[in-house]
Amino acid sequence: MPLKVNLKLFLSAIIALITTNQTIFAQLPAVFGPEINKTVKKDELTRYYITPQRIVWMSDSSGKLITNPQLLLQQGIGQTFMENRTVCKIINKGSTVSGLVLDFGKEIQGGIQITLSQSNRVTPKVRLRFGESVSETMSYVIGDGTTGKEGGATNHHSLRDFMVQIPGLGSQEVGREGFRFLRIDLADTNASIAIKEIRAVATMRDIPYLGSFKCNDELLNKIWMTGAYTVHLNMQDYLWDGIKRDRLVWIGDMHPETMTISNVFGNNPVVPKSLDFVRDHTPLPAWMNGIPSYSMWWIIMQHDWYYFHGDKNYLMQQKSYLLPLLDALLSKVGADGNENLNGFRFLDWPSSENKPGVHAGLQALMVIAFDKGAELCKIMGETKLATLYSSKANQMRQHAPDANNSKQAACLMALAGMIPAEKANREVIDVGGVKKFSTYFGYYMLQAQAKAGAYETAINNIRQYWGGMLKLGATTFWEDFDLEEAANAAPIDNIVPSGKLDYHRNTGAYCYIGLRRSLCHGWASGPTSWLTENVLGIHVTAPGCKTIKIEPHLGDLAWVEGTFPTPYGIVKVKHVKLKSGKIQTTVSAPAQVHIIKV
């Protein structure tokens, strides 16, 4: 039924709008009636217009087929004009295709806006190729939507490569994907297009960076911020894993993102919204995302989110699902204390072929999930169940399978208290340095190294592994990265020269083959929260940040300072290494937060 506007209510609403400074959104029910609340929803995201920073490539350098391209680097307004002014023209003579590649300077989530001048009274057709790398914009083949075979870009999850018509004397907005680069080619034969301006239209949550990290090593500062920005881009309608591909709520992948959000942005509603989304779409006894380990990560996140933010009302809303889920996990433990989980047995992709390692990792993850589930039961007043799950964790802890040289399994076993962290680090995790690290489980490898006291080793691993992506031109962290494989790789922000490896196009495995690989993946943000926790030294030891232990580990750093968001306000910390080697610490915290210095 169409909405009916009551003119009298409409006028009174406008008067109220003017006199009370209320937003028009707040007045919609008065204007259209209460049923409007069922059909209208305010967007949680904010739009930003971004000007291209440089022209990476042009099909023609003579100035005859592409004229005045530098105009595209001027800030636009999104409004066309009637009078004759200088524009950028792209011209096709015969079937020759002319085009160029623009660089917007940084990975963004969104689309583009193209504004044409009066020179176009027709509706020209252009081919747009969005890219997280320059190589992706230069791909001529649309690859298989699942595997990215032939190295081609894919239109899987979001459109990367497609045709669109642009109206003369108007603007057209198109695209909703993750990208930094754009290739635009005029598709019509014997035609021209007169472009007044091109702008990227980025969509993000307008939220402050409450947490911060700064030290005397600029590389670590950049890594911390890159991890924070990577997650920020993925905080869209829900908390995604990637803004190009994997625009889904993968609940296990969310854990590193959730830790980054808690350390940088504080209590943001996108996290509980996403946790609830997967819960509500996973009726028991099914596993979240079809993966038993991901249901365990959901339990772990409920625990960690409660500890950082202390929202007991939200926690209690999970009780009717949490307890049966813990029981479902309980049923998957044999009498001998070994896990026998059904479904897709998965830790991360690089470890997936190591079946004994996967078993060891799942055994450890169940111990962690039962430990944290038991603590949540105590908080919810279920003391008998807390004892049951704690006992099961202790039983399983006594059955420590061989990690089979899996760094993923070894780090989980160390964190679960199944093997000494020093042993796990010495015999498995630290072997070969960052060889066999993964962008997802690298976070837990760093955590295990911290538990082993190998802080300086972990800091150097961050510099080498995550810094390796920055050396290749990354502005966000990637779904997958192999430092050895990238030894002869060219940066992603230019045309790949002869003799150099095109890392984005010609490497990859599993679900991220070739250009299908995401170069903005939230699960890769681990160093951000790790540096805050272990170098800045902020450890939350009581729910809602009521108690925070300050225990810094500077390694080879001379000083570090930063901030950390709590439900009561910002904690400020600074550490300076004195000539004696001792650390001088200054802390400023809200009165409600009890600080323990170590």
From TrEMBL:
This is Alpha-L-rhamnosidase. Keywords: Signal. Residues 210-535 form the Alpha-L-rhamnosidase six-hairpin glycosidase domain. InterPro entries: 6-hairpin_glycosidase_sf, 6hp_glycosidase-like_sf, Bac_rhamnosid6H, Bac_rhamnosid_C. It comes from Mucilaginibacter boryungensis. Pfam families: Bac_rhamnosid6H, Bac_rhamnosid_C. Residues 537-593 form the Alpha-L-rhamnosidase C-terminal domain. Residues 1-26 form the signal peptide.
